[in-house]
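pinned: reference chain
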Amino acid sequence: MPQNRKLIYLPEAERDFREIVSFFLKGPGVPYARNVYTTMRDTIRKLRDYPLLGPVHPDPELAALGYRKLVLTEIYVAIYKIEDSMVYVYRIVNGTTDYPKLLK
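pinned: its structure tokens
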């Protein structure tokens, strides 16, 4: 059942999102950047109604801190927390990197 929570992008996540889209604008071009943007945005928006969509983060330290991980594309993931009636998106990162150190 949808929960209709408020979705908040923290400044780091907003910056991550802009940098990812900018990277694709400069490389593959506008159509691809638009597709990446739309896919990530729409997937993250699902957290408003389904905050448990992403599993608890597999890193034990991040899991202990309450972080969850949502796969957005083949490469990118959103790291978020649920607090009361809010979903906070902390980072949007390349899932193949050592990104957990950014959150510890």
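why pinned: The domain at 6-102 is CATH 3.30.2310.20 (YaeB-like fold). The two ends are 32 Å apart (CA to CA).
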